[in-house]
Amino acid sequence: MGQVAFDTLKFVETLETAGLPKDQAKAISLAVRESHEAVDVATKRDLEDVRKEIDARFDKVDARFEKHEAQMQARFEKTDTQIADVRKDLSAEIALLRKDVEHTANGLLIKLSAVMLAIAGLASTIVTVVIKLL
User: Fold this and answer.
1) Chain centroid to CA 7: how far?
2) Which parts of the chain span the membrane according to its record (predicted)?
3) Which of 25, 31, 39, 132 is 20 to 30 Å from 55 at the Cα level?
């Protein structure tokens, strides 16, 4: 940290003007100067340097957040695309299954109709035979 500027000569003159003897004024000035040197006081320059360091760190953190945000956005977009593709695939599979079910149902309906016609023909034959036997 920097030192706070202290003009000992001017301070001695101020004390002498106030009526203190020169040797007392020098002793007081020396004591004040030593107290300033012993105290680690932050100057405006020190505070400005710290502020610049903090700003630089925040800029780095902000840049990292922006980078991660962009990466996350890209992942979300990729995931959205994958979900849309899966939906298309599922819709196509469902459409194929519906066609298969419809085809199978039509085949069963044709077979059932043939069986019903066969039963009707058999019933007609049985009735004809029974009538002839009577």
Assistant:
1) 57
2) 108-131
3) 39
